[in-house]
Design brief:
alpha/beta, 5 helices, 6 strands, about 40% helix, binds ligand AR6
């Protein structure tokens, strides 16, 4: 298993699966979620709506993951996961770790060989970059998986630098 850190737009990645930092509604939003739905087209939202009807009437719980088509994206699948909102009052690091573990479990069930993750919760959800990176890299390293190519695709200098420090 190899872990790499790249700078860029995750929607451009030619991998089997990209991970979306979604919200419980699964119905889209801003940040990387908005970018994925825009670039992938309506087929992703249609499948998310179907998942809400069939399996997740109350939405996808925080820390869990589920796959849909990637529509027009170069990837084959989008794995949607819901990161925790950061708060100083409570340690939600286990929920953030769960996003990475559960995404890899979904990837393994799909037979995915390559996957790209964004920095889940490190944007709108307010997670400090250093901590988000340590949890992401630490969890992926500790998780047994058949995925051989794991990439973190990062959008900002601050988050990129934090992931580089976490990997070193
Ligand atoms: N490729 C890679 N990373 C990106 C991209 C991109 N195209 N665009 C943004 N990022 P965020 P969250 C980075 O806010 O904190 C949405 O509205 C961004 O710079 O997308 O988990 C959802 O619907 C940051 O480092 O996700 C939820 O409501 C990282 O992706 C909520 O935001 C995550 O930032 C989830 O918040």
């Amino acid at each position: 298993m190899g872990i790499r850190i790249l700078r860029g737009d995750i929607t451009k990645q030619h991998v089997d699966a990209i991970v979306n930092a979604a919200n419980t509604s699964l119905l889209g939003g801003g940040g990387v979620d908005g970018a994925i739905h825009r670039a992938g087209g309506p087929a992703i939202l249609e499948e998310c709506q179907e998942l809400r009807r069939s399996r997740y009437g109350k939405g996808l719980p925080t820390g869990q993951a589920v796959a849909t088509t990637a529509g027009r994206l170069p990837a084959r699948w989008v794995i949607h996961t819901v990161g925790p909102v950061y708060t100083e009052d409570e340690d939600r690091g286990d929920l953030l770790a769960s996003c990475y573990r559960e995404s890899l479990a979904v990837a393994d069930r799909l037979g995915v060989d390559s996957i790209a993750f964004p920095a889940v919760s490190a944007g709108v959800y307010g997670w400090p970059a250093e901590s988000a990176a340590a949890i992401a890299v630490g969890t992926v390293r500790e998780t047994a998986t058949n995925v051989s190519d794991i990439r973190f695709v990062l959008f900002t200098d601050e988050v990129l630098a934090a992931f580089q420090r976490a990997l070193d």
